Amino acid sequence: MPATEPKKILLAEDVRAISMRMSHALETNGYEVRVAEDGEECLEQMETFKPDLLVLDLIMPKMNGLEVLRHLRAQQSTQHLPVIVCTAKDYSTELKHIQQTGPVDVLIKPFDPDLLLEKLRQYFHEPATVAGTTHRAHLPAATEQYAPVLDTKRPHVRLWGTRGSIPVCGSKYAQHGGNTTCFEYNTGKERILFDAGSGLREAGQSFLAGGPCHIHLFITHTHWDHIQGFPFFTPIYVPGFEITVYGERGFGKNIESLLCGQMDRDYFPIQREDLRAKINFVFLGDLPVKIGEVSVTREFTQHPGATVCFKVEHNGWKGAFVPDNEFLQGYTGSPALLERDTDLVVPYEPILKFLDGMDLLIHEAQYLPADYPKRIGWGHSNLATACALTKLVNAKKWVVVHHDPDHDDTALHGKLNLTRQILREIGHPIQVVHGYDGMTEYH
Ligand SMILES: [Zn+2]
Ligand SMILES: [Zn+2]
After folding, report:
1. What ligand has the least distance to the C-alpha of 305?
2. Residue 358 and residue 393 in contact, taking contact as beta carbons nearer than 8 Å
3. Cα 430 to ligand 1 centroid, rounded to whole Å
4. CA-CA distance, 144 to 152, in Å (whole number)?
């Protein structure tokens, strides 16, 4: 408590909420307080109130705190007046000069009134010998730094390769990447891969750190862009890894000879018999494959050969991977005219039923509507009909993949804007993004 004669404190502070809080604390502790709301008023009150100490905000209307301080130090009567400067910014250079003429202390905003009281006790019980120290208030726990860390153990999808047909590279493709198809579904426990395009190489490297494990690899079909990463999938060379490869029965050859055929001595220096991991080949059927709590099912798509797509169901979440599917082959009309019972659409009912109500639909839309007429039957969707498909199956979110190698980043930006426009036109403005190599989607 101050001595019997109350000490007089002038608060020069333009923010009323702060001055009220401080004057309340000071008055409760026996000080006599006046408030000045700008620099000029502060100098006026200095004459009439004659405070024992000034608490001075630096940023004030009419005349700022530094000007006030210079003025005070130039007057004989206030040359040695103790001043506590309140500031949110570091004005140490400016204050250093002024400090030489009289005691100036600094409180960094925001500060607790208790800290001001503590300073006043120092001034009035021990003469002002502590000038120059800077203090920041202890903030309440609720305002401590918020620094969340991503929980990578949550289920998520990772896209290792999003390009169709052939890998591309160069600065034009820097944003989306150039690796061909490879997706991962990661539960935090199980890591399940879909397709073995060139993106599989990096996926394989990511497995090495965790040590040998059982990897499940589902193949949609055996076109180059979906298998060419297999010989570069490092876990196949590491003893202790077990890799189960799931594929549909092709026409004639089986999945093992198709995958490992590209390691024939004429094409590749290491052969099937040199692989050190345990590798199993499994034919897909109608039954779901169960991996932990994950269920994987497949359906045939409109694409040359025996091509399938996959659906993942996990604790109520549903996602589908459909990199190659020419939905409504040959249709070049408006997507707004299509319904589930439209004659043209009815033959596609099995896949529409399979893709119904996905939380995340990863589906291709390789060709622009203007280009599609020249590419009918090549096995890839016209963007407009792909938009219609997302509406017909009521997808909640769409990630577009299997980007055409001719579409660089600039072309893909334009294409995405067109996609959003078409989705709005057909009354299905869902969230749509372009997949890129390395993209991770948590759910
Ligand atoms: Zn493909
Ligand atoms: Zn294909």
Report:
1. 2
2. yes
3. 25
4. 24
C-alpha closest to that of 236 among 194, 280, 197: 280
| Torsion of Cα atoms, 160 then 164 then 169 then 171, to 10° | -90
- What are the two backbone dihedrals, phi and then psi, of residue 65, each rounded to the nearest 5 degrees? -60, -35
Q: Is 160 helix (H, G, I), strand (E, B) or coil?
A: strand
Average pLDDT over residues 53-81: 87
Which of 118, 119, 45, 27 is CA-nearest to residue 82? 119
Q: Considering only residues 385 and 94, tell me which one the structure prediction assigns the higher pLDDT.
A: 385
- Give the distance (Å) from ligand 1 centre to CA of residue 331: 20
Q: What tokens were used for 347?
A: 């033959």
List domains and CATH numbers for the chain.
8-143 (3.40.50.2300), 156-442 (3.60.15.10)
Query: Which own/partner pairs from 264-267 qualify as long-range (CB within 8 Å, at least 24 positions apart)?
Result: none
Ligand approaching nearest to the C-alpha of 366: 1
**Helix (H), strand (E) at residue 202:** helix 200-208
Contact status, residue 39 vs residue 17, Cβ threshold 8 Å? no
Cα 129 to ligand 1 centre (Å): 78
Which ligand has the shortest distance to the CA of 405?
Answer: 1
DSSP letter (8 states) at residue 240 = T
| Ligand 2 center–CA 322 separation, angstroms | 11
Whole-angstrom distance, CA of residue 355 vs CA of residue 224:
25
Beta carbons of 83 and 52 less than 8 angstroms apart: no
Per-residue pLDDT tens for 82-139? 888 888 777 777 666 666 666 678 888 778 888 888 888 888 875 544 444 455 555 5
Tell me, in angstroms, the distance from the centre of ligand 1 to residue 199's CA.
13
User: How many Å lie between the centroid of ligand 1 and the Cα of residue 139?
Assistant: 56
Distances (CA, A) of 339 to 20, 342, 391: 66, 5, 9
In the sheet with 8-12, reading across from the earlier edge strand, the strands are: 32-36, 8-12, 53-57, 83-87, 104-108, 134-136
Q: Which of 123, 121, 119 is nearest to 102 (CA)?
A: 123
Q: What's the 260 CA to ligand 1 centre distance in angstroms? A: 18
Distance 139 CA to ligand 2 centre (A): 60
Residue/partner pairs of 293-299 with CB below 8 Å, 24 or more apart = 293/187, 294/185, 294/187, 294/190, 294/192, 296/192, 296/216, 296/218, 296/246, 297/354, 298/218, 298/248, 299/350, 299/351, 299/354, 299/355
